[in-house]
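Much of what follows relies on a compact textual record of a protein's fold. A complete example follows; check for yourself that the lines match position by position.
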Amino acid sequence: MNTPQLRVTALSKAFGGVLAVDQVSFDLAPARVNSIIGPNGAGKTTLLNLLTGIYAPSSGTVAFDGADVTGLAPHQLAARGMARTFQNPQIFFNMSALENVMVGRHLRERSGWLAAMLRSARLKTAERESRAEAAELLRFVGLGEYLDAEADAMPYGALKRLEIARALGGKPKLLLLDEPAAGLNQTETQAINALITRLAKSGVTVVLVEHNMRLVMGVSDHILVLDYGRKLCEGTAEHVRNDPKVIEAYLGSAEQAAC
């Protein structure tokens, strides 16, 4: 069996006497769409924060590309190829869309502080390349019309995709998306759906935390279901959709609400 890109083993997180995540284990294969679902309070965001270094686990391990990354800080994980977005877009509104994406590329820049001070030819070349790559990422996420736009003038749905473009600027192998469809209309949600599919086809592994069950069931290769911090079920969309425990705990009412 091939080594999974991400291996989570008996991961737990306690806040005081409350276990928000309780002995959760799972493996994720590369270049697939993996969703984490569950009722409110199931531990989804806590799990995402553990995977991305915002929280340190109380126990358990996280391995990424075969290396133990348990407890590493977010910037250390980013340097290894892991990136994330947030439910509420973390955008620099005093910058343009292009500049926001260029910020996301800073981990891959090679020009040092001396070159920056001297405005060397190497720095100018790097800046031109950065702008070109940022523009290409904006086109990739479907924001080609916003190349010259200021972030504070962009609609909410576009800002969601702008944050994804910025995350892609660091050339991640694993991208974690926290409710990318939250607050979007049907057309904007369809654009997110198509983008997630393109990401996986391009070789990026996607981890999706999302309440929109139509989106989850339509785009996911693998789904992990949490309930009260524990793993309730995992498998394909078909398997999860028909699991009696999932229907009882969550999916039935959620699908009805989505209709």
The domain at 1-81+209-259 is CATH 3.40.50.300 (Rossmann fold).
